[in-house]
Amino acid sequence: MTGRITRRELIRRGAAGGVLLGFPSILAACGGSGGIEGEGAEPSETAATTVSRELANRLVFANWPFYIDVNEDTNERPSLNQFTKETGVEVRYLEEVNDNEEWFGKYQAQLAAGDDIDRDIVVLTDWMAARMIRLGYVQRLDKETISNASNLQEALQSPGWDPSRDFSMPWQSGLTGIAYNKKTIGKVTTIDQLLNDPKLKGKVTCLTELPDTVGLVMAAQGADPSTVDAGAFDSAISALQDAVDSGQIRRFTGNDYTEDLDTGNVWACMAWSGDIAAGLKNPDIEFTGVDTGSHLWTDNMVIPNGGDVFTASTYMNYVYDPVVAARIAAYVYFISPVVGAEDEIAQFDEEAVGNPLIFPTEDMLSSTFIFDAEASDNPEYKEKFQAVIGA
Amino acid sequence: MFLHRHPRLIPYLLLLPGILFLVVFFLVPMYYLGFTSLQSGDLFAGYRFTWAWDNYRDAFTLYEGHFLRSLQYAGLATLFAFVISYPLAYWIAFRGGRWKNLLLLLVIAPFFVTYLIRTLAWKTILADQGIVVDVLRALHLVGEDGRLLATTTAVVAGITYNYLPFMALPLYVSLEQIDTRLIEAAEDLYASSVRAFLRVTLPLSLPGIFAGTLLTFIPAAGDFINAELLGTPRQLMIGNVIQSQFKEVADYPQAAALSFVLMAGILLLVLLYARAVGSERATRTAA
Predict the structure, then answer these.
(1) What is the CATH number of domain B63-286?
(2) Of the four listed, A16, A224, A239, A271, which is most buried by Cβ atoms within 10 Å?
(3) What global pTM score does this model have?
(4) In angstroms, what separates the C-alpha of A366 from chain B's closest C-alpha?
């Protein structure tokens, strides 16, 4: 090995090795030694003190597709327009997050090198938000600005990876349960039936997201998915492997499972509540929670390094206003993390009132689990899961 | 003046752009891929170069099935593409007349739509409740609860369909170059038309067959879209493994080792094939 190198170089090398870019300097220095997690890669402590309380001209917001209110006629996004009207901040809204890992892979090298990725807010699922915090890629929120944070649902207030929500605010939550075709198979409420009922052979799909699929199976086996241990994990994996080998599970899917449900290729599957709550073309498709436990997940807003903390926090405060939250919820049909949104939703969408998939009852929430964020990001677990889903 | 004094440098200078291109876009990435494939570690601790030959051992022991399946599917697809393309190319070359160009355009017409969309369209065509399966069910060619989508048949058919033009076009080119007087001469000498085909046309089209099979087989062996969209986890190919090792597991060294093994395997097969066909015969122009 060569002699001493600075931490910055270390980080660069680890990251560049990660994205397989051919920098000659890496070749010369006999390897991308060191990692992303170098010394000092602690969550940034500086942000809160250096915040300038001045709004930027522009907010760049990276989100998942179909995840904010859209006026279908004008193709405008009313809640964003209103924000611009109230604050004068233009919003550049990017639907660029299709997959947590893919998004991370795209920006990792820049984030690791400490470069500005020109994003003020990005929405990432629990485990990925946790990873971003752990790696020091995100900034502390300006909590004084987010006074509406008091409207955050109690169940979401202190996840293990960000116990006092210093770095993240939930965007939307959702339940992972079972969708079924009531005409071809009737109501399916258990994971056991999904994985073992011969009538469903080849007519079942599960999800490519580890926390969803493994979590539901673990819960069905009586294990606790919120603190994963290796034995229980392996046992869930082997149940899934059996169902793959027997031909019971047809595919592992992302969002595209809705298409297979619609066309009748699939009769029952693991599904995300919001997709079904909004209603598929096929009227026979229904969603149900799982008796043994549905997965309650959350996508969170975080501020990547380089983003404007005050402007981003101002926006977060804005969407935690129950009226704004209701406007968004009435479009996306996932679970709003904002208390009070339910009371306001009637003015945007009569049908959403009392819909338990958007405003789950206490009873429904009591049989949910939040998957262990650390286990979701454990390389060994991920490798085992990928091996089952066929690779 | 310099070149006047050193005329032997001229060919090298002319080669320079090509060589530079190969160095930048082939040799350097290859070197880096090989370098990555011998690293060990993980995403968070970082990957280090450690001569980790284990990655190659794992490539063989853990993913042997995926490799064999890929070669098998690619081989079948190449065979089917050949069986479909040869009569097609033959007909266009010898009977196409003034429609030749239009017919060729039709062969490559699917390329105007992106690969992904073409493959997705097959999902609709082969759907469990779709018209194709209904007809086959009525004819008792698939069972009552049988299906086409998410089966090996669908994956191989998808690959065949997607790479068909790569087979058809080289075949057409070599058939089109054949001097028809040679075939006439064979028939004048009392060869039956079958015999004339086997002794004259087929050997003369060998360069097209060679090029077509390579152009089909090589990309087909590394394909992952068809298995992903038209198959189940039991149909996944080595391309799917590489993609998931890289993108989901973030085990870059393993993905690199798998890529290398795939490339080496294909190269070996191509060499054996070239030897069997006789590379000089195969690459000689049909004229």
Answers:
(1) 1.10.3720.10
(2) A271
(3) 0.82
(4) 32
